[in-house]
Specification:
The chain is about 30% helix and about 20% strand. By secondary structure, the chain is an alpha/beta fold. The protein has a domain at about 120-195.
Length: about 375
Amino acid sequence: MSDPVTARTPADVTVGGAAVDGAPGDDHRLVVEDLSVRAGRLGLVHDVSFRLGRGERVGLIGESGSGKSLTALAVMGLLPEGLSASGSVRVSSVDHDLVGASDARLADLRGRVLSMVFQEPMTALNPVMRVGDQVAEVMEVHDLASGRDARRRAVELLAQVRMRDPDGVARRYPHQLSGGQRQRVMLAIALANEPDVLVCDEPTTALDVTVQAQMLDLVVRGAAERDAALLFITHDLAVVATVCERVLVMYGGHIVEAGPTRRVFTAPRHPYTRGLVRASDLGALGVDGTDGSLRRPLPTIPGTVPPAGAFPSGCVFRNRCERADEACEVEPPWDGLPGDGAACVHPYDPEDTAAPGDTAASEPGGVT
């Protein structure tokens, strides 16, 4: 596993109409522009734009209800019935937009060009189909292997995700495996066809700490060996600090901050991001501006995430933000450099070196 929050190549982000520079255009594996998701007239995700470069690892974080999983499902063309997407989703190896593409076209791409590892493998795996057959099936569907060759390749993939006795595991059913083993099967399926883009939606949430670390290592290695762009969705900031080079912070269906992981976690500019960092255990990793030795009760962000349709106009965080005033009643502009800033009227000073867990003298209203 690489060192925590070591940045490499930046991801492009477009927020509030401001283009965010990043990797050269030829290296973009995934380009998302003005992606929105609606349920009838109700907006759930609003004008989300970002780009992932070849081999890049980008985290998408936020509380439950922020729109992270909906964004991933929209990218994959897997929105449930009753929801619709607009905007643009393009993959470098595909000559058409994924938004609005037919089900047949999307089915041809999923599992081959784009793959996804879901949070709960028991709902994603077929309970009455042997594990090896499920891994082989994704190759057979896309005509990349068949018969004995597909079965042999399935066993090899199970071995690559460090399954003990991969031959035996291939003959078992999902219910005969542990949670960590089932998640490894999901990763083997996702990586089977060498995808350009790998989306992981909280794949380690239900795993214990030891198994989680092993799974994260497999995800990073699997993506790196295939030079795939990785979008890692989670609410666990420590996981992002370990895995991702850049991070996008989402709240209320909007990207509110973006930047290199170390900068975002040590000097967050948006009050929401600052609240997330303060409420996390990043101090144990030494990436929140402290040496990891300070122990104190973790503060919380006031209030809760509103239900869909109940976010305030203007800045969607203003009803929970102690910095909010009348200026926050209009949609905030992007403040900062392209690719490294926040959508906020009252962002924190990037030169403020106080730890996110401390009260900075520059904070209006004495935010604690």
